[in-house]
Predict the structure.
Amino acid sequence: MNRIVLVLSCFLLFVSSSLFAQVVNVYSARHYDTDDEIYSKFEKKTGIKVNLIEGGSGAILERLKREGKRSPADVFITVDAGRLYQAEAAGVFQPVKSALLSKLVPANLRHPDGKWFGLTKRARIFLRSRDRVKEGEITSYEDLVKPRWKGKVLIRSSSNIYNQSLVGSLIAVHGEAGAEKWCRGLVANLARVPQGGDRDQIKAVAAGEGDVAVANSYYFARMLNGTDAEKAAAAKVAVVFPNQGNRGAHVNLSGIGVCANSPNKANAVRFIEYLMGTEAQEVFAAGNNEYPVVKGAGTVAALEAFGSFKEDKVNAAVFGKNNAAAIRIMDRAGWR
Amino acid sequence: MKSNPGRYWSVACFALAAVVLLPIFSVTWNLTQDSEGVWGHLAETVLGKYISNTLLLALGVGCGTLLVGVLAAWLVTAFSFPGVGFFRWALLLPLAIPSYLMAYAMTDLLQFSGPAQTWLRETTGWSRGDYWFPQVRSLAGAVFILVLCLYPYVYLAATTGFLSLSASVIEASRTLGASSWSRFWRVVLPLARPSIFAGVALVVMETMAEFGAVDYCAVDTFSTGIYRTWMGRGSFVAAAQLSTCLLGAVGLLYLLESRFRKSAKFHHATQRTQPPAPARLKGARAWAAFAACAVPVLGGFLLPVVRFLQLTVEGGDSRTGELFIGLAGNSALVAGVTALVAVVCGLLLTQLRRRAPSSSNLFAVRAAGLGYAIPGGVIAIGVLAPLWWIEGGVNDVTESVLAWGPGLFLSGTIFAVLFGYQVRFLAIPLNVIGAGFERIRSTVDDAARTLGASRLRLLFGVHLPLLRGSLFCAALMVFVDVLKELPATLILRPFNFDTLAVRVYQLASDERLSEASTGALAIILAGLVPVVLLTRVLKPTHADSAPPGKSP
């Protein structure tokens, strides 16, 4: 008897939370403290409660996929175009038509049918040693495989999605064979077995383990505001935006889409539109030293100092689609 | 034994095992699915490396923990030397540190750009290539880190094993002229073997399922391959198939052990579990013992804690107070509930095995513990699959009758988390309590039954008191493991439910080690509470109970 009461009350609790209050249920693979700040501002402004599950992208996506038509998720936020593509291919997004969103988000940073929208963007840049590499000595991703850089290049494991997307963008430019040749050249030039995160690559350049590191822009920006040791390391390297003479630096993004079975679709769209507002964009991007996708939103001071740069305009959906091919290529090239 | 109540009892236990087996089965079920050519590609490129690395890692960590854990356990139970009372519990401290955080701390400290090597270069004027330094991000580095993290499992198991040896066995061997070493090799070790094997088996399973630390050490194992296949190629089927291979390996391990020991029984003649009085060590021997106990505590606990403290001071988590009270509460609550339930389930299942040691029962009990060897993320999906299936059925019915469905009332609630932890951690009580049972002679049961004791009386009056140490150990290990657990929690948790481990992961995975260090310290602090409680169990009772004049 007691058990029945318990089960019933659990039901009621669960049901009441989904029936009687205005909510938007967010599954997110992004987690910064400033995100919470934005969510609570949205709650205050609209009276819509934000329910949140954060976790690893692949795992959350798997849950979302399998929950199917009964999934409570209204929106899914994830990082990297490759993952947005996987989510879209798995059918967890639904198209959204919003004149406001089409106006605010540039065309190369959103899905053609409105299945997802870029939230923030980051560039995959080089950090060169100020002592050992002159300005202008290395200027493009293609330069990384030149014999000059044998034993000098630092980059993390190919398991990392940022590298997979970079190779995906190279496939878009050079084709699969060209990209594989590039990967083999890169492996031949590595200073050490790929290990650690992006910041570890930058620190290794500062310590003299190699001459040029490949890393996402926000990691370096964060080091500039980090501990004393990190600041000291950051002072020994300089930012290089690759491929400024041709297609532009590889830019990746974090993005958001409305889930296919969203029980609160109107709230979901409202939530996304709120995140594209200037204020939300600024806080959202600043939380991780990223670039806002919406024009007119201010950039964080740390990034401002790097100067402006030319972006590779290829639609993020393209290198997202190349993800599986990129991994096969990297496995074959022996990039761990 | 063929009485009806006994039969119901068996059926109930079998049902319990079946519930836990469902998720494991749902993972292995993927063997029948098509993985779209992933295997061909893996076999061509990286599979060989995955296999050799996993074997070497498991072997290295297994042997390393065996050496460190058994040696330390023998020293603190059989001898007295300076600091022995302190080491008895301090040797457990590394339990409180999640392995991925240990890996972060160690690599941060020992890598080329880390403080240790930077100091070396600055004081000597060397630069890259001028000197040799052990590479921490390597297979050897991963073994080193995991041995430091995991040896307490073996230490704990061996200590409970050694403490339950009765003084009379040791004294008999002493009387027969055996030296302390030959006593150890020929009497103590064989008698404590079930406990030690239970500990090592847990270590090996944990090692095979380990992802964070291994990945951070740049070693490609089956487990990292599973995640790479899953996340990178979006193929859960292939990932589940790879996980099933890990299960096969664990099955093989159990098979080997049962072959190895054949029909040997390890309980000893007397049930007087009064431990032998320790021998006093003096001079160089005392210091050697001191060092053997101090090194694991220093490396496995003090070093990372000092580093985390330093990082916290430099730039800790800015939301410490606001988040930690709630998070620590959540963590402790789920860990406590899980530990309690797991110990009860473990006791029921090992009981079954003891009462009716048929091969089908043995298999069911063994299989119920396999969740420990599957990477947490994969088992989490395995846990959700049957829940979704049940929910689907219930919703279909209620929707057609009432035009309303309860939605995801299992998988979307805390139930999924608690169930997932059972599946993942049941191996601990099964192994630890199982080893405890093996030390109790079956004639004890027969005697109790002959004297007219009911099954319940036997359990509560005889078994439970004798198993006290094992039960405590199992509960502690589950509690601490839940505190540290991450991948399954991440997938299974309901809306707005955070734990300490999740918070730490969110920061650490984003390379914000300084901020993560505050949460790491909180996990360590929470883990210390049960460790300190356990010290009371691990304390030999001979001083209190031995009649005066008898101790040397």
